[in-house]
């Protein structure tokens, strides 16, 4: 079972992180070169199937899907505590479909929260794209 778990981990890491053949061989340093070559051939032959299985496993984490979004930029001029606020706010309305049901989600963000969201989405995009 340890061998299966080890190779499963190696295959997931190699495909998920898009490792080169040299990096995969480095992760198999404990094996002789003939075994390394056989494992690399198996990996390269099934790389697309492994990638698809990883994507499907990731998709099962949440069944929610973004259907549509709308945004509005507002300027808060004052509040009940401060007479002069002058703060830009973003209202983000998301239509999320979960288990066949459309659920509206509304988020209000200030400038710092918006920057944090954008940075998070850019980081996720870098991981997703080659």
From TrEMBL:
Pfam families per record = COMM_domain, COMMD8_HN
COMM domain span: 65-130
Q: From what superkingdom does this record's organism come?
A: Eukaryota
Protein name, as recorded: COMD8 protein
- The source organism is Polyodon spathula (North American paddlefish)
